[in-house]
Structure prediction request, 131 residues.
Amino acid sequence: MIRGNEHQTQQDDWRHQLAGALGVDVQRLHVFFSLYENAFVQDALPSRIKHLIALAMGIGERTSESIAYHVNEALLAGASRSEIRETVTVAVLIAGIPSLSSGLEALACMAQYEAQQMLSAGGTPVNGIHG
Prediction:
C-alpha cells in the first residue's frame, strides 16, 4: 500500500493527466476531489455509513470500481460483514434484479479483502472468508 507523500504525488500526477484528457483546469478537479474527500469524513454520519450508502448506490448503478472501492473503505472504516450484507440486500431489493450481479460482486470483494487481510496477518483463509 502506498502512503504519505508518494501517494499524494501519484494522486497529483493522475489528476493532471485526467485534467488534460478532459480539457479542464486541474484546479477544478482539485475542488471536486476535495469535496469528495470531505464528504466521507466522520461527521453527523460515521464514515462507515457514508461508504455503505455509496456502496448501495454503486450496486444500483452497477459500477464495479465504485463497488470495490466502497466495500474496502467501509471495512477500513469499521463496517461489519453483517452491515455489508444488509447493504447489499437493501440495494438489490431497491434497484431490482439487474443489480443482483453487482450485489454478488460486492460480497466477492468483501471476501477478497478479508482473505488479503488474513494472509497479511499470517493466517489461512477458509474459502476466502474468515470469521
